[in-house]
Specification:
191 residues, alpha/beta, 7-stranded mixed β-sheet, two-stranded antiparallel ribbon, 25% helix
Amino acid sequence: MPNTKPKSGGNSVRIVAGHLRGSRLHVPDIDGLRPSPDRVRETLFNWLAPWIAGMRCLDLYAGTGALGIEALSRGAGECVFVERDRTLWRLLQDNLARLHITNGRAIHRDAADFLAATPQAFDLVFLDPPFPANLWSASAQALEERGWLCDAAMIYVESPQGIVPAVPARWIPHREGHAGAVRYALYRRIV
């Protein structure tokens, strides 16, 4: 059984369900880092339950990797984690190794640079950039226009309460919720 104890110091988030249920991910004290709360992740993955098995996922602004690791815990086929902060990227690599996750890959790269590279289509994308950076719309357009999404892809978008980011016309709202100061929405891409 994997060692699920977080490193000392800071806070942690737990994986809510699946084979890694109860595992903890260390959350370092980094300004602006705010992992999706347990309650939000639980709701999101209840919405995704009919489709999550085998999905190919992209956690574009990975941070701690909580969204992508939760997806893998619940049966996603693989997840690519993109994180530009070197400390978070190393922590993410450590968590993947500590939890014996072999179908997750952490890439140390800026999300915009990653999206400018040769695309590979994903079934599910987590779009949860740092709130002050206001990167939702530019990232959404790049995902849509550059071939990063499968025909029936699902896209999760997390933003501050009261802000509804502009998304491509092909992204149809599936479900939406609010928790504290956060708005979260799941979109389904149509062709």
